[in-house]
Amino acid sequence: MIEPPRRNHPAGPFPLTAPHKSMKINSVLYRYLFRELLQPFALSIVFLTFVFLMTRMLDIADMIVNHRVGMGTIALLLFYSMPFFLEFIIPMSVMMSVLLTFLRMSADNEIAALKAGGIGLFHLLPPVLAFCLIGALMTAVMAIFGLPEGRMASKKLAFETIASNTGLGLEERRFNDRFENVMFYVGAVDSARDELRDIFIEDARDPDMKSVIAAPRGTLRGEKGKFDFHLRLYNGSIHQAAPGSKASRNLRFDTYDMILSLPPPSPSAQNAPKDEEEMSIPELRAYIAENDANKDARYYLTLMELHKKFSLPLACFALGVLAFPLGIQSKLSKRSYGIGLGMIFFILYYLMLSAGWVFGEAGVYPPFIGMWAPNLVMGAIGLALLFASAREYALSLDFIRDSARAVLKRFPQRPKGAR
């Protein structure tokens, strides 16, 4: 019996000998790549979230030190603001995850081994696209549902916090009319001792008797969730006079207590018109349809917000496809070089998005161009680099590095040895 001649298969870790073996190899490879993408993605999310929160540290410190806002309230405010951060953080984390994963594989010669085994670059693309899809879905949840709900909850919590914490509303050396029928002036607020200094009050709560009260110091206490506050004044004086009468009297006191009330929240304040970021998609579309004839600045802002809810999730695909060929280049095996290029492309994306927002708001060009052009540009660059890499074209991206160095040289440098 004559046996048919056997074909010689290319050597390598994944010999493609049969369709079922090929499918099994692809399945193992895809699971491996997907697991490799998860760790840098999680680290990027944590790191970038920390960076974004650092931008709020001054506000947080001011609320804690000067206004005695509780840590629970601050944690809630940060939690409600997270969707706004995450709709930008997730696409950037997807890009950095793909870039770091394939930089490591390229540095460890895993990409070369896969090519030697007959696996082309396009065989590595499905898990990358699946990962980008997951990132896009997460970003869509943040942009479509998380951002409006977070903004509304943050506004409500901020209103309740200000209402129950008078220190957030009393400004030094200004007249404050937060309390009903009471004009309040405070020269200074001593947060360390929780005291008010140089207090002047005009009390018009009694229509038959107006009082003017002055005291060098006092304390103001309130209970959370209530709108009544206890004011205690020390070593002051009261001048009282009836309207339409020339009679008046002056009193001095060592201690004087007052109960001050804030007006309850009005329905109009709670039901104020929503900002663009607080609107759901049906509300955005309804506003656009109602104001189509009057195309003012808010009309363009609303239209851009609607496009942004879809363009930001799809940025995961544009940035992920761009990061894939950048990571597999042998010339970029140095992580610092590859990460630097990734950051340059993301900054370029963000600058284009910001420019699109500015020009779209001004009506220079249609808002959809400003919101979608960054995705189209980055996606086109990514596809061009991907096809060039698949055909083994040597990619020279040194011009980007040289351009960055040229820009940095324009800034004045500190002389050596200077302190």
From TrEMBL:
The keyword GTP-binding does not apply. It is found in: Cell membrane. GO terms for cellular component: ATP-binding cassette (ABC) transporter complex. The chain crosses the membrane at residues 32-54, 74-103, 124-147, 310-328, 340-359, 371-390. InterPro entries: LptF, LptG/LptF_permease. Keywords: Cell membrane, Membrane, Transmembrane, Transmembrane helix. One of its GO terms (biological process) is lipopolysaccharide transport. Signal peptide: none annotated. It is a multi-pass membrane protein. It comes from the Bacteria. The keyword GTP-binding does not apply. Pfam families: LptF_LptG (PF03739). Its main location: membrane. This is LPS export ABC transporter permease LptF. It comes from uncultured Desulfobacteraceae bacterium. The lineage of its organism: Bacteria, Pseudomonadati, Thermodesulfobacteriota, Desulfobacteria, Desulfobacterales. The gene is lptF.
